[in-house]
Amino acid sequence: MKCFYYARNCLIIFIYIACLVLGFNNSCFASSAATTPDSSDILQYIHNSWHDLTRTPTNCGTYQDTKVANMPFLYLPYHYTMTPEIKKLKYSCHINVANLPRRIKNIGDVKTTELASAGLLYLPFPYVVPGGRFNEMYGWDSYFIILGLLHDGETQLANNMLKNYFFEIENYGTILNANRTYHLSRSQPPFLTSAILAIYNNQQTHKKAWLQHAYKYAKKDYLQWVSKPFLAGKTTLSRYYDVEKEPLVEERAYSSYYEKILTYIQEHPDISPFYTDPKNKKLLSSDFYQGERSLRASGFDITSRFGTFGGKTHYFAPVCLNSLLYKTEKDLAHIATLLGEKHEAEKWELKATQRHAAILKYLWNKKTGMFVDYDFVNKKQSTYHYATTFYPLWVGLASHKQAAALVKNLSLFEQPGGLAMSDQDTGVQWDKPFGWAPIQLLTVQGLNQYGYKNDATRLAQKFYQTIKNDFLSKHKIYEKYNVVKQSSAFSIRLGYEENVVGFGWTNATYLLFDDLLKKANTSHIA
After folding, report:
1. What radius of gyration, in Å, describes the C-alpha atoms of the chain?
2. CB 131 within 8 A of CB 501
3. What is the pTM of this model?
4. Is the dihedral of CA 49, 55, 61, 65 positive or negative?
5. How far, in Å, CA of 456 to CA of 440, rounded?
Protein backbone atom coordinates (compact mmCIF):
# COMPACT_ATOMS: atom_id res chain seq x y z
CA MET A 1 0.00 0.00 0.00
CA LYS A 2 2.83 2.41 0.87
CA CYS A 3 4.44 1.73 -2.51
CA PHE A 4 1.16 2.73 -4.13
CA TYR A 5 1.06 6.01 -2.20
CA TYR A 6 4.67 6.87 -3.05
CA ALA A 7 4.15 6.09 -6.74
CA ARG A 8 0.97 8.13 -6.80
CA ASN A 9 2.62 11.14 -5.12
CA CYS A 10 5.51 10.98 -7.60
CA LEU A 11 2.97 11.02 -10.44
CA ILE A 12 1.24 14.06 -8.95
CA ILE A 13 4.58 15.90 -8.63
CA PHE A 14 5.45 15.00 -12.25
CA ILE A 15 2.09 16.36 -13.48
CA TYR A 16 2.61 19.53 -11.39
CA ILE A 17 6.06 20.18 -12.90
CA ALA A 18 4.82 19.41 -16.40
CA CYS A 19 2.00 21.93 -16.01
CA LEU A 20 4.45 24.61 -14.91
CA VAL A 21 6.82 23.92 -17.79
CA LEU A 22 4.04 23.90 -20.39
CA GLY A 23 2.42 27.00 -18.94
CA PHE A 24 -1.00 25.49 -18.30
CA ASN A 25 -3.33 27.19 -15.83
CA ASN A 26 -4.99 25.77 -12.72
CA SER A 27 -7.36 23.67 -14.83
CA CYS A 28 -4.44 21.32 -15.34
CA PHE A 29 -4.30 20.65 -11.60
CA ALA A 30 -8.05 20.42 -11.32
CA SER A 31 -8.20 17.80 -14.07
CA SER A 32 -5.40 15.78 -12.49
CA ALA A 33 -7.32 15.82 -9.21
CA ALA A 34 -10.27 14.19 -10.92
CA THR A 35 -8.11 11.24 -12.03
CA THR A 36 -6.25 10.64 -8.78
CA PRO A 37 -7.85 8.47 -6.09
CA ASP A 38 -6.91 10.64 -3.12
CA SER A 39 -10.44 12.00 -2.58
CA SER A 40 -11.86 8.55 -2.06
CA ASP A 41 -8.84 7.62 0.08
CA ILE A 42 -9.46 10.39 2.58
CA LEU A 43 -13.19 9.70 2.71
CA GLN A 44 -12.47 6.02 3.32
CA TYR A 45 -9.98 6.98 6.04
CA ILE A 46 -12.67 9.04 7.77
CA HIS A 47 -15.28 6.32 7.40
CA ASN A 48 -12.90 3.75 8.93
CA SER A 49 -11.92 6.16 11.69
CA TRP A 50 -15.37 6.09 13.29
CA HIS A 51 -14.85 2.40 14.00
CA ASP A 52 -11.19 2.79 15.00
CA LEU A 53 -12.04 5.57 17.46
CA THR A 54 -15.08 3.85 19.01
CA ARG A 55 -14.76 2.75 22.63
CA THR A 56 -17.04 0.39 24.56
CA PRO A 57 -17.16 -0.59 28.25
CA THR A 58 -16.04 -4.15 27.45
CA ASN A 59 -13.03 -3.14 25.32
CA CYS A 60 -9.82 -3.16 27.36
CA GLY A 61 -8.33 -0.38 25.22
CA THR A 62 -11.05 1.94 26.53
CA TYR A 63 -9.26 2.28 29.87
CA GLN A 64 -5.81 3.29 28.64
CA ASP A 65 -4.74 6.78 29.69
CA THR A 66 -1.28 8.00 28.73
CA LYS A 67 -1.87 11.25 30.64
CA VAL A 68 -1.48 9.55 34.03
CA ALA A 69 0.86 6.77 35.13
CA ASN A 70 -1.17 4.34 37.19
CA MET A 71 -3.02 1.06 36.85
CA PRO A 72 -6.27 1.54 34.89
CA PHE A 73 -9.21 2.33 37.14
CA LEU A 74 -12.94 2.37 36.37
CA TYR A 75 -15.40 4.30 38.55
CA LEU A 76 -19.11 3.61 38.52
CA PRO A 77 -21.75 6.07 39.73
CA TYR A 78 -22.70 5.87 43.39
CA HIS A 79 -25.00 2.88 44.05
CA TYR A 80 -24.65 1.77 40.40
CA THR A 81 -24.99 -2.00 40.20
CA MET A 82 -21.82 -3.82 39.18
CA THR A 83 -22.98 -6.20 36.46
CA PRO A 84 -21.29 -9.56 35.75
CA GLU A 85 -19.78 -8.02 32.59
CA ILE A 86 -18.19 -5.23 34.62
CA LYS A 87 -16.91 -7.68 37.23
CA LYS A 88 -15.16 -9.63 34.47
CA LEU A 89 -13.25 -6.49 33.48
CA LYS A 90 -11.22 -6.72 36.68
CA TYR A 91 -9.57 -9.85 35.35
CA SER A 92 -9.88 -9.62 31.58
CA CYS A 93 -8.54 -6.04 31.42
CA HIS A 94 -6.56 -5.99 34.68
CA ILE A 95 -8.29 -2.91 36.04
CA ASN A 96 -9.62 -1.79 39.39
CA VAL A 97 -13.36 -1.13 39.63
CA ALA A 98 -15.12 0.91 42.33
CA ASN A 99 -18.18 3.09 42.91
CA LEU A 100 -17.90 6.82 43.50
CA PRO A 101 -18.19 7.70 47.21
CA ARG A 102 -21.48 9.62 46.93
CA ARG A 103 -24.18 10.74 44.54
CA ILE A 104 -23.24 13.72 42.37
CA LYS A 105 -25.83 16.43 41.73
CA ASN A 106 -23.51 19.32 40.89
CA ILE A 107 -19.93 19.90 39.78
CA GLY A 108 -17.60 19.57 42.76
CA ASP A 109 -19.74 17.18 44.82
CA VAL A 110 -16.88 14.67 44.60
CA LYS A 111 -13.33 16.01 44.81
CA THR A 112 -10.62 14.29 42.80
CA THR A 113 -8.45 14.20 45.93
CA GLU A 114 -11.01 11.92 47.60
CA LEU A 115 -10.44 9.12 45.12
CA ALA A 116 -7.82 6.43 45.46
CA SER A 117 -6.59 6.89 41.91
CA ALA A 118 -7.37 8.77 38.72
CA GLY A 119 -9.58 6.72 36.45
CA LEU A 120 -12.24 6.45 33.77
CA LEU A 121 -15.86 7.30 34.57
CA TYR A 122 -18.23 4.65 33.30
CA LEU A 123 -20.44 5.36 30.29
CA PRO A 124 -22.92 2.64 29.26
CA PHE A 125 -23.02 3.22 25.50
CA PRO A 126 -20.33 3.08 22.78
CA TYR A 127 -18.72 6.44 22.00
CA VAL A 128 -16.16 7.97 19.65
CA VAL A 129 -13.01 9.50 21.13
CA PRO A 130 -11.09 12.32 19.39
CA GLY A 131 -7.91 10.24 18.96
CA GLY A 132 -4.38 9.74 20.29
CA ARG A 133 -3.90 10.62 23.95
CA PHE A 134 -7.52 11.77 24.12
CA ASN A 135 -8.95 8.32 24.77
CA GLU A 136 -12.25 9.38 26.36
CA MET A 137 -15.54 11.07 25.39
CA TYR A 138 -15.07 14.84 25.37
CA GLY A 139 -17.68 17.54 25.89
CA TRP A 140 -17.63 19.82 22.87
CA ASP A 141 -15.64 17.47 20.60
CA SER A 142 -18.57 15.08 20.71
CA TYR A 143 -20.99 17.54 19.08
CA PHE A 144 -18.79 17.81 15.99
CA ILE A 145 -18.19 14.06 16.00
CA ILE A 146 -21.97 13.54 16.08
CA LEU A 147 -22.28 15.72 12.96
CA GLY A 148 -19.71 13.55 11.21
CA LEU A 149 -21.44 10.34 12.28
CA LEU A 150 -24.79 11.58 11.02
CA HIS A 151 -23.20 12.56 7.71
CA ASP A 152 -21.78 9.04 7.33
CA GLY A 153 -25.01 7.31 8.28
CA GLU A 154 -23.73 6.15 11.68
CA THR A 155 -26.99 7.19 13.33
CA GLN A 156 -27.00 4.58 16.09
CA LEU A 157 -23.54 5.60 17.26
CA ALA A 158 -24.58 9.28 17.18
CA ASN A 159 -27.63 8.42 19.31
CA ASN A 160 -25.44 6.48 21.74
CA MET A 161 -23.19 9.48 22.26
CA LEU A 162 -26.20 11.66 23.01
CA LYS A 163 -27.43 9.08 25.52
CA ASN A 164 -23.99 9.20 27.17
CA TYR A 165 -24.41 13.00 27.46
CA PHE A 166 -27.66 12.35 29.35
CA PHE A 167 -25.97 9.70 31.52
CA GLU A 168 -23.25 12.19 32.50
CA ILE A 169 -25.81 14.84 33.47
CA GLU A 170 -27.75 12.29 35.51
CA ASN A 171 -24.79 10.67 37.27
CA TYR A 172 -21.86 13.11 37.16
CA GLY A 173 -23.72 16.42 37.48
CA THR A 174 -22.87 17.84 34.06
CA ILE A 175 -21.53 17.09 30.61
CA LEU A 176 -17.93 16.71 31.64
CA ASN A 177 -14.79 18.03 30.01
CA ALA A 178 -14.30 14.28 29.48
CA ASN A 179 -15.23 11.11 31.37
CA ARG A 180 -12.15 10.96 33.59
CA THR A 181 -12.19 11.55 37.35
CA TYR A 182 -9.84 14.53 37.01
CA HIS A 183 -12.56 16.23 34.95
CA LEU A 184 -15.26 15.99 37.62
CA SER A 185 -14.62 19.65 38.47
CA ARG A 186 -15.50 21.18 35.09
CA SER A 187 -17.62 21.02 31.97
CA GLN A 188 -16.96 22.25 28.40
CA PRO A 189 -18.68 24.61 25.90
CA PRO A 190 -22.43 23.80 25.81
CA PHE A 191 -23.50 22.21 22.52
CA LEU A 192 -26.18 19.88 23.94
CA THR A 193 -29.25 21.45 22.32
CA SER A 194 -27.36 21.69 19.03
CA ALA A 195 -26.65 17.94 19.23
CA ILE A 196 -30.26 17.14 20.15
CA LEU A 197 -31.67 19.09 17.22
CA ALA A 198 -29.06 17.71 14.80
CA ILE A 199 -30.15 14.17 15.64
CA TYR A 200 -33.85 15.05 15.76
CA ASN A 201 -33.76 16.74 12.34
CA ASN A 202 -31.70 13.89 10.87
CA GLN A 203 -34.03 11.13 12.05
CA GLN A 204 -37.71 11.64 11.44
CA THR A 205 -38.42 8.47 13.45
CA HIS A 206 -37.93 10.38 16.69
CA LYS A 207 -41.26 11.05 18.36
CA LYS A 208 -42.54 13.60 20.84
CA ALA A 209 -41.65 11.34 23.81
CA TRP A 210 -37.99 11.22 22.68
CA LEU A 211 -37.85 15.01 22.37
CA GLN A 212 -39.51 15.45 25.78
CA HIS A 213 -36.88 13.18 27.32
CA ALA A 214 -34.06 15.15 25.68
CA TYR A 215 -35.65 18.46 26.70
CA LYS A 216 -35.51 17.45 30.37
CA TYR A 217 -31.73 17.00 30.23
CA ALA A 218 -31.19 20.12 28.13
CA LYS A 219 -32.95 22.25 30.75
CA LYS A 220 -30.87 20.75 33.55
CA ASP A 221 -27.62 21.32 31.65
CA TYR A 222 -28.58 24.94 30.94
CA LEU A 223 -29.33 25.70 34.60
CA GLN A 224 -25.72 25.00 35.53
CA TRP A 225 -24.47 27.84 33.34
CA VAL A 226 -26.85 30.45 34.77
CA SER A 227 -26.13 29.65 38.43
CA LYS A 228 -23.24 30.44 40.75
CA PRO A 229 -20.29 30.01 40.43
CA PHE A 230 -20.72 30.21 36.65
CA LEU A 231 -22.09 33.76 36.62
CA ALA A 232 -19.77 36.53 35.44
CA GLY A 233 -20.22 38.99 38.28
CA LYS A 234 -23.21 41.30 37.89
CA THR A 235 -23.25 41.23 34.08
CA THR A 236 -25.99 38.51 33.94
CA LEU A 237 -23.62 36.74 31.53
CA SER A 238 -21.77 33.49 32.24
CA ARG A 239 -18.17 32.36 32.50
CA TYR A 240 -16.09 29.19 32.22
CA TYR A 241 -15.19 27.84 35.63
CA ASP A 242 -13.43 24.95 37.33
CA VAL A 243 -14.28 24.51 41.01
CA GLU A 244 -10.84 23.20 42.00
CA LYS A 245 -7.64 25.18 42.53
CA GLU A 246 -4.86 22.57 42.41
CA PRO A 247 -2.35 21.71 39.66
CA LEU A 248 -3.84 19.60 36.88
CA VAL A 249 -3.54 15.85 37.40
CA GLU A 250 -3.35 15.21 33.66
CA GLU A 251 -0.26 17.42 33.31
CA ARG A 252 1.83 15.20 35.57
CA ALA A 253 2.98 13.29 32.51
CA TYR A 254 4.70 16.53 31.47
CA SER A 255 6.99 17.10 34.42
CA SER A 256 8.35 20.41 33.12
CA TYR A 257 4.96 21.93 32.24
CA TYR A 258 4.45 24.09 35.33
CA GLU A 259 8.19 24.71 35.66
CA LYS A 260 8.19 26.36 32.23
CA ILE A 261 5.15 28.47 33.13
CA LEU A 262 6.73 29.61 36.40
CA THR A 263 10.03 30.45 34.67
CA TYR A 264 8.23 32.56 32.07
CA ILE A 265 6.18 34.37 34.70
CA GLN A 266 9.23 35.11 36.87
CA GLU A 267 10.99 36.55 33.81
CA HIS A 268 8.06 38.96 33.32
CA PRO A 269 7.71 41.04 36.48
CA ASP A 270 4.65 42.82 35.09
CA ILE A 271 2.57 39.63 35.42
CA SER A 272 4.42 37.86 38.23
CA PRO A 273 2.46 39.49 41.12
CA PHE A 274 -0.83 38.23 39.68
CA TYR A 275 0.24 34.63 39.10
CA THR A 276 2.62 33.71 41.92
CA ASP A 277 1.78 32.74 45.47
CA PRO A 278 1.80 35.89 47.70
CA LYS A 279 3.74 33.99 50.39
CA ASN A 280 6.18 32.21 48.10
CA LYS A 281 7.13 33.71 44.74
CA LYS A 282 8.63 30.37 43.69
CA LEU A 283 5.16 28.87 43.54
CA LEU A 284 2.17 29.55 41.32
CA SER A 285 -0.93 30.85 43.08
CA SER A 286 -4.14 28.89 43.62
CA ASP A 287 -5.93 31.65 41.68
CA PHE A 288 -3.69 30.94 38.68
CA TYR A 289 -4.44 27.22 38.90
CA GLN A 290 -8.16 27.93 39.01
CA GLY A 291 -7.88 30.25 36.02
CA GLU A 292 -5.87 27.75 34.02
CA ARG A 293 -8.29 24.96 34.94
CA SER A 294 -11.14 27.19 33.81
CA LEU A 295 -9.32 27.63 30.50
CA ARG A 296 -9.58 23.83 30.06
CA ALA A 297 -13.32 24.17 30.58
CA SER A 298 -13.39 26.63 27.68
CA GLY A 299 -11.80 24.06 25.38
CA PHE A 300 -9.19 26.58 24.24
CA ASP A 301 -6.22 25.19 26.11
CA ILE A 302 -3.83 26.89 25.78
CA THR A 303 -4.20 30.50 24.61
CA SER A 304 -3.23 33.83 26.13
CA ARG A 305 -6.65 35.22 25.30
CA PHE A 306 -7.62 35.26 29.00
CA GLY A 307 -4.29 36.48 30.33
CA THR A 308 -0.94 34.74 29.95
CA PHE A 309 -1.51 30.96 29.73
CA GLY A 310 -5.19 31.58 30.51
CA GLY A 311 -4.49 32.31 34.15
CA LYS A 312 -7.41 34.77 34.38
CA THR A 313 -10.04 32.81 32.45
CA HIS A 314 -12.47 32.93 35.39
CA TYR A 315 -12.34 36.76 35.28
CA PHE A 316 -14.03 36.89 31.87
CA ALA A 317 -17.49 36.73 30.32
CA PRO A 318 -16.49 35.15 26.97
CA VAL A 319 -18.21 35.80 23.68
CA CYS A 320 -18.11 32.11 22.70
CA LEU A 321 -19.84 30.79 25.84
CA ASN A 322 -22.52 33.46 25.92
CA SER A 323 -23.21 33.06 22.21
CA LEU A 324 -23.71 29.33 22.79
CA LEU A 325 -26.02 30.02 25.72
CA TYR A 326 -28.03 32.41 23.55
CA LYS A 327 -28.38 29.61 21.01
CA THR A 328 -29.31 27.18 23.81
CA GLU A 329 -32.12 29.51 24.89
CA LYS A 330 -33.36 29.85 21.31
CA ASP A 331 -33.10 26.07 20.82
CA LEU A 332 -35.04 25.41 24.04
CA ALA A 333 -37.74 27.79 22.82
CA HIS A 334 -37.89 25.87 19.55
CA ILE A 335 -38.06 22.49 21.31
CA ALA A 336 -40.77 23.77 23.67
CA THR A 337 -42.75 24.94 20.62
CA LEU A 338 -42.42 21.49 19.00
CA LEU A 339 -43.70 19.97 22.25
CA GLY A 340 -46.69 22.34 22.32
CA GLU A 341 -45.37 24.18 25.39
CA LYS A 342 -46.19 27.71 24.26
CA HIS A 343 -45.74 29.34 27.69
CA GLU A 344 -42.31 27.75 28.18
CA ALA A 345 -41.27 28.77 24.68
CA GLU A 346 -42.11 32.39 25.51
CA LYS A 347 -39.99 32.21 28.67
CA TRP A 348 -37.00 30.90 26.73
CA GLU A 349 -37.40 33.61 24.11
CA LEU A 350 -37.39 36.22 26.87
CA LYS A 351 -34.17 34.79 28.32
CA ALA A 352 -32.58 34.89 24.86
CA THR A 353 -33.67 38.52 24.42
CA GLN A 354 -32.17 39.46 27.78
CA ARG A 355 -28.89 37.70 27.03
CA HIS A 356 -28.75 39.37 23.63
CA ALA A 357 -29.04 42.78 25.31
CA ALA A 358 -26.25 41.93 27.77
CA ILE A 359 -24.01 40.67 24.97
CA LEU A 360 -24.47 43.95 23.09
CA LYS A 361 -23.77 45.93 26.26
CA TYR A 362 -20.61 44.13 27.36
CA LEU A 363 -19.24 42.17 24.39
CA TRP A 364 -19.83 44.31 21.28
CA ASN A 365 -17.13 46.82 20.40
CA LYS A 366 -18.59 49.22 17.87
CA LYS A 367 -15.26 50.93 17.26
CA THR A 368 -13.44 47.77 16.15
CA GLY A 369 -16.54 46.07 14.71
CA MET A 370 -15.91 42.93 16.75
CA PHE A 371 -17.48 40.88 19.52
CA VAL A 372 -14.94 40.56 22.34
CA ASP A 373 -14.58 39.08 25.82
CA TYR A 374 -15.32 41.16 28.91
CA ASP A 375 -13.14 41.23 32.03
CA PHE A 376 -15.87 41.71 34.64
CA VAL A 377 -13.37 41.87 37.53
CA ASN A 378 -11.52 44.85 36.07
CA LYS A 379 -14.60 46.10 34.19
CA LYS A 380 -13.08 46.39 30.72
CA GLN A 381 -13.33 44.78 27.32
CA SER A 382 -10.50 42.59 26.07
CA THR A 383 -8.34 43.92 23.25
CA TYR A 384 -7.19 40.41 22.31
CA HIS A 385 -8.28 39.60 18.76
CA TYR A 386 -9.71 36.08 18.75
CA ALA A 387 -11.60 34.03 16.17
CA THR A 388 -14.51 33.42 18.53
CA THR A 389 -15.63 36.89 17.47
CA PHE A 390 -17.50 35.04 14.69
CA TYR A 391 -19.63 32.89 17.02
CA PRO A 392 -22.49 35.44 16.95
CA LEU A 393 -22.83 34.74 13.24
CA TRP A 394 -23.28 31.01 13.84
CA VAL A 395 -25.89 31.51 16.56
CA GLY A 396 -27.67 34.28 14.66
CA LEU A 397 -27.49 37.08 17.23
CA ALA A 398 -25.51 39.60 15.15
CA SER A 399 -27.37 42.28 13.21
CA HIS A 400 -26.65 42.55 9.49
CA LYS A 401 -24.66 45.72 10.16
CA GLN A 402 -22.59 43.90 12.79
CA ALA A 403 -22.11 40.96 10.41
CA ALA A 404 -20.74 43.34 7.75
CA ALA A 405 -18.28 44.75 10.30
CA LEU A 406 -17.18 41.25 11.30
CA VAL A 407 -16.54 40.29 7.68
CA LYS A 408 -14.22 43.28 7.34
CA ASN A 409 -12.18 41.81 10.21
CA LEU A 410 -11.65 38.43 8.54
CA SER A 411 -8.26 39.67 7.36
CA LEU A 412 -7.00 39.69 10.96
CA PHE A 413 -7.29 35.90 11.03
CA GLU A 414 -7.35 34.63 7.44
CA GLN A 415 -4.23 32.77 6.33
CA PRO A 416 -3.36 30.63 3.28
CA GLY A 417 -4.67 27.53 5.06
CA GLY A 418 -7.76 28.90 6.79
CA LEU A 419 -8.54 30.96 9.89
CA ALA A 420 -5.86 31.32 12.56
CA MET A 421 -7.22 31.46 16.11
CA SER A 422 -5.66 34.86 16.81
CA ASP A 423 -3.35 37.43 15.28
CA GLN A 424 -0.69 36.85 17.97
CA ASP A 425 1.93 34.11 17.86
CA THR A 426 2.32 33.26 21.56
CA GLY A 427 3.89 29.84 21.10
CA VAL A 428 0.83 27.93 22.33
CA GLN A 429 -1.55 25.80 20.31
CA TRP A 430 -4.78 27.85 20.46
CA ASP A 431 -3.19 31.01 19.03
CA LYS A 432 -1.65 31.94 15.68
CA PRO A 433 -0.47 30.17 13.51
CA PHE A 434 -2.84 27.33 14.40
CA GLY A 435 -6.26 26.68 12.96
CA TRP A 436 -8.78 24.26 14.44
CA ALA A 437 -11.63 22.49 12.71
CA PRO A 438 -14.56 23.53 14.95
CA ILE A 439 -13.84 27.25 14.58
CA GLN A 440 -13.48 26.90 10.81
CA LEU A 441 -16.85 25.12 10.63
CA LEU A 442 -18.76 27.52 12.89
CA THR A 443 -17.37 30.55 11.08
CA VAL A 444 -18.08 29.20 7.60
CA GLN A 445 -21.62 28.18 8.55
CA GLY A 446 -22.18 31.56 10.19
CA LEU A 447 -21.00 33.46 7.11
CA ASN A 448 -23.30 31.36 4.93
CA GLN A 449 -26.27 32.09 7.15
CA TYR A 450 -25.72 35.84 6.73
CA GLY A 451 -25.35 35.60 2.97
CA TYR A 452 -21.55 35.92 2.73
CA LYS A 453 -21.31 32.78 0.61
CA ASN A 454 -18.16 33.76 -1.30
CA ASP A 455 -16.25 34.37 1.93
CA ALA A 456 -17.60 31.14 3.40
CA THR A 457 -16.63 29.11 0.35
CA ARG A 458 -13.15 30.65 0.19
CA LEU A 459 -12.42 29.89 3.84
CA ALA A 460 -13.84 26.37 3.60
CA GLN A 461 -11.71 25.71 0.50
CA LYS A 462 -8.55 26.86 2.27
CA PHE A 463 -8.93 24.64 5.32
CA TYR A 464 -10.28 21.72 3.28
CA GLN A 465 -7.26 21.91 1.00
CA THR A 466 -4.87 22.12 3.95
CA ILE A 467 -6.26 18.88 5.36
CA LYS A 468 -6.34 17.19 1.96
CA ASN A 469 -2.82 18.13 0.85
CA ASP A 470 -1.37 17.14 4.20
CA PHE A 471 -3.19 13.81 3.98
CA LEU A 472 -1.60 13.15 0.58
CA SER A 473 1.86 13.09 2.14
CA LYS A 474 1.11 11.65 5.59
CA HIS A 475 -2.09 9.61 5.09
CA LYS A 476 -3.45 10.84 8.41
CA ILE A 477 -5.80 13.53 9.70
CA TYR A 478 -4.70 15.63 12.66
CA GLU A 479 -6.08 17.52 15.60
CA LYS A 480 -4.91 20.95 14.37
CA TYR A 481 -3.00 22.60 11.54
CA ASN A 482 -0.54 25.41 11.03
CA VAL A 483 -2.70 27.47 8.67
CA VAL A 484 0.13 29.88 7.84
CA LYS A 485 2.31 27.06 6.46
CA GLN A 486 -0.67 24.85 5.52
CA SER A 487 0.76 21.86 7.33
CA SER A 488 0.25 19.57 10.31
CA ALA A 489 3.95 19.94 11.13
CA PHE A 490 4.69 22.51 13.80
CA SER A 491 6.56 23.32 17.00
CA ILE A 492 4.98 24.47 20.25
CA ARG A 493 6.89 26.24 22.99
CA LEU A 494 4.55 25.29 25.83
CA GLY A 495 1.70 22.88 26.40
CA TYR A 496 0.86 19.79 24.38
CA GLU A 497 3.89 19.17 22.21
CA GLU A 498 2.31 16.74 19.77
CA ASN A 499 -0.26 16.87 17.01
CA VAL A 500 -2.67 14.05 17.72
CA VAL A 501 -3.82 11.71 14.96
CA GLY A 502 -7.48 10.80 14.62
CA PHE A 503 -9.13 13.15 14.60
CA GLY A 504 -12.81 13.37 15.43
CA TRP A 505 -13.80 16.97 14.77
CA THR A 506 -11.39 17.41 11.85
CA ASN A 507 -12.93 14.36 10.16
CA ALA A 508 -16.42 15.81 10.58
CA THR A 509 -15.44 19.27 9.33
CA TYR A 510 -13.76 17.82 6.25
CA LEU A 511 -16.94 15.90 5.38
CA LEU A 512 -19.17 18.95 5.78
CA PHE A 513 -16.79 21.16 3.80
CA ASP A 514 -16.66 18.51 1.08
CA ASP A 515 -20.43 18.80 0.75
CA LEU A 516 -20.38 22.59 0.88
CA LEU A 517 -17.72 22.87 -1.82
CA LYS A 518 -19.46 20.41 -4.11
CA LYS A 519 -22.66 22.41 -3.82
CA ALA A 520 -20.76 25.60 -4.54
CA ASN A 521 -19.24 23.96 -7.65
CA THR A 522 -15.76 24.73 -6.33
CA SER A 523 -12.86 23.01 -8.03
CA HIS A 524 -11.13 20.48 -5.78
CA ILE A 525 -7.45 21.16 -6.32
CA ALA A 526 -5.30 18.13 -5.63
Report:
1. 23
2. yes
3. 0.91
4. positive
5. 9
> By C-alpha distance, which of 109, 121, 108 is closest to 73?
121
**CA 132, CA 478: separation in Å to the nearest integer?**
10
Name 325's Cβ contacts closer than 8 Å, sequence gap at least 6: 190, 222, 225, 226, 238, 355
Separation of alpha carbons 525 and 515, rounded Å: 15
Judged on CB neighbours under 10 Å (0-12, 13-18, 19+), 393 is: buried
Distance between CA atoms of 455 and 460, rounded to whole angstroms? 9
Are the beta carbons of 171 and 104 closer than 8 angstroms? Answer: yes
Question: Could you tell me if 515 and 147 are in contact, meaning their C-beta atoms sit under 8 angstroms apart?
Answer: no
Count CB neighbours of 377 within 10 A: 12
Show pLDDT as tens, one digit a residue, over the chain (526 residues).
444 444 444 544 444 444 444 444 444 434 344 334 367 899 999 999 999 999 999 899 999 999 988 889 999 999 999 888 888 888 899 999 999 999 999 999 999 889 989 999 999 999 999 999 999 999 999 999 999 999 999 999 999 999 999 999 999 999 999 999 999 999 999 999 999 999 999 987 778 999 999 999 999 999 999 999 999 999 999 999 999 999 998 876 556 888 889 999 988 888 888 899 999 988 999 999 999 999 999 999 999 999 999 999 999 999 999 999 999 999 999 999 999 999 999 999 999 999 999 999 999 999 999 999 999 999 999 999 999 999 999 999 999 999 999 999 999 999 999 999 999 999 999 999 999 999 999 999 999 999 999 999 999 999 999 999 999 999 999 999 999 999 998 888 877 778 999 999 999 999 999 999 999 975 444 4
DSSP string, 202-226: H-TT--HHHHHHHHHHHHHHHHHHT
Active site members: 301, 479
CB 317 within 8 A of CB 235: yes
Residue 362 to residue 238: CA distance in whole angstroms: 12
Q: Is 265 helix (H, G, I), strand (E, B) or coil?
A: helix
How many Å apart are CA 179 and CA 32, to the nearest integer?
A: 45
Q: Which helix (H) or strand (E) holds 517?
A: helix 504-519
The Cβ of residue 201 has, within 10 Å, a number of other Cβ atoms equal to 10
Count, residues in the chain: 526
Going by C-beta distance under 8 Å and a sequence separation of 6 or more, which residues neighbour residue 376? Answer: 232, 233, 234, 235, 237, 239, 315, 316, 317, 362
Rounded Cα distance between 75 and 396, Å, is 40
DSSP 353-394: HHHHHHHHHHTEETTTTEE--EETTTTEE----BGGGGHHHH
Q: Are 476 and 501 in contact (CB under 8 A)?
A: yes
The DSSP bridge partners found for residue 365 are 370
Q: Which residues on neighbouring strands pair with residue 97, listed in sequence order?
A: 74
